[in-house]
Amino acid sequence: MPTGRVKWFSLEKGFGFIASDEGEDVYLAATSLPAGVTSVKPGTKLEFGVADGRRGPQALSIRVIDAPPSLVANSRASHDDLAAMIEDTIKILDKVSNGLRHSRYPTQVEAERLGKVLRGIASQLDNQ
């Protein structure tokens, strides 16, 4: 299986890119991350399968080989940043709530993305 390192990843956007050891950029969808992994930091070494997707090569069956040490895990986001994240999440939840009132459930991708955002905020609140 090919290997590479995460170039960048955005939980908010739901995707990022891997710089494969073969030299090509590989699309990394948040939904392709292993179970229990909500985000990956730049520099994280991954092993993955590759399939041709709409955006070119896309990573599948991802396995984290080596994650760089986390300095962020030991600190909280600033009060202002956390407040902004919560306010943005309230807007997202309001949109989902309005859809549910009209018998429209969120799509699986929207639901997974919302779950990851909520878990990210919860981890910031739990990080003491």
Keywords:
alpha+beta; 128 residues; globular; single chain; five-stranded antiparallel sheet; OB fold (Dihydrolipoamide Acetyltransferase, E2P); 33% helix; 30% strand
Write the layout of secondary structure elements.
Blueprint: E1 3-10, E2 15-20, E3 25-29, E4 45-53, E5 56-66, H1 79-101, H2 108-126
Antiparallel strand pairs: 1-2, 1-4, 2-3, 4-5
Helix pairs in contact: 1-2
What does this 3D model show about the protein?
This protein has 128 residues and is an alpha+beta fold. The protein has two domains: 3-66, Nucleic acid-binding proteins (OB fold (Dihydrolipoamide Acetyltransferase, E2P)); 72-126. It is 33% helix and 30% strand. The protein has a five-stranded antiparallel β-sheet, with no helix packed on it.
Largest sheet: 5 strands, antiparallel
Query: What is the residue-averaged pLDDT?
Result: 87
**First-last Cα distance:** 38 Å
The structural domain count equals 2
Based on secondary structure, the structural category is alpha+beta
Q: Walk across the major sheet and give the strand order.
A: 3-2-1-4-5
Would you count the extended β strands for me? 5
Low-pLDDT windows of residues:
none
Radius of gyration, taken over Cα atoms and rounded to an integer in Å: 16 Å
Provide the β-strand percentage band: 25-35%
